[in-house]
């Protein structure tokens, strides 16, 4: 038996990868625990547990925090321990194996890789030739090839939700919980890691679906054991396969009967699919609009969809009584403040009920990130990117326009809700970006977002107790 300690800085919602890997490990008889640094002393947990493996799931921008924490944890573990890193950043930058204290980097999916590593350590016969891993052995780097993706997702055990819920009260008591019904995406948007993922998995199909019965079984199990009133599906695209959607629309309302949220894409929406979503119980969906300007959306981002397609998709959903939220990227390279206002207007035309707006961050290994770096649009290097993508822009542009774009991010959703406010917003965003102004705009943004989410995105009954718990949790989290 191998003892594995997952280390998380904070929990926003259920980390799907960690839960899936934990389920696979526990099924094989290994001992798995979790520590959440935001709510407890991870050093004390590690000192008591004395794990064989420290596991870190890392996004770009968070790696340095985990490097430091890993070194501190290793100091309190009184036996040999392997520190292994997985997730988006290690997958696309396995060279981080050279960092002090990093013993292994998982490239790609982690279930089989973690299981093989734990089995080898448990048998006392660790060998560095395990697929999906880069290992550091006696100062030498061993680079192993990738294994195939998990094609039959229904063979995986249900995610180990108890790992999260037993430690994290806000997630456990929330009536909104998160699920996955598929993996993968067939598109190559330039701001996404997707194209780099399929450079690793060159011969793989771009998208696998969990069986409908598997998804229903998981949702029903969660509802039987924990509060659940709203299901959120995190899949990149929930509506790729119409035959799957047909089966889901037939079974889910009968066997579960809960409202749900899912991600869609405007050029995949048809009247038939909208009707199936409505039949299945979708009360809200999210759609990437990203940019209103045609050149930015189709040439820079490679979204390959017209304004009319976006507007028509929004109107179909509105007619069906399904609330639409959107994602948008402000402060893109070569964009202007007028382009960002054009994006705001397109959201309003598409009848978006809540518009999320993010400031562009040039993530490494993405096509747009590399374009930004190579063309001198970026201040500093990729190491300057923070873990949070809505605080500030690191792109090179006129300081006044940069400030306006950052301020507009706070007001964007309100501008979509009240298009007549555009002349007012153009004045408000010219306010100096100091601590007082930023805090005021931040609170306006958060209060409107909170209202929209509780009234439209997830319109469910939430008790005062849950509201207080979630507010406390929110205030403790970064941004």
Which structural category fits the helices and strands? Answer: alpha/beta
Number of domains: 2
Helix content: 40-55%
| Strand percentage | 15-25%
Mean pLDDT: 91
Q: How many whole angstroms does the radius of gyration measure? A: 23 Å
Taking the alpha carbons of the first and last residues, their distance comes to 39 Å
- Return residue spans where pLDDT drops below 50 for at least 5 consecutive residues: none
Name the CATH homologous superfamily of the largest domain: Aldolase class I
Instruction: Quickly name the level 1 CATH class of the largest domain.
Output: Alpha Beta
Look up the CATH topology of the largest domain.
Answer: TIM Barrel
Q: How would you sum up this structure, described in words?
A:
This protein folds into two domains: 141 residues, Cobalamin-binding domain (Rossmann fold), CATH 3.40.50; 286 residues, Aldolase class I (TIM Barrel, Alpha-Beta Barrel). The strands form three sheets. The chain has a seven-stranded mixed β-sheet, sandwiched between helices. It has a six-stranded parallel β-sheet with strand order 8-11-12-13-14-15. It has 19 helices and 15 strands. The radius of gyration is 23 Å and the shape is globular. With 479 residues, the protein is α/β, with parallel strands linked by helices.
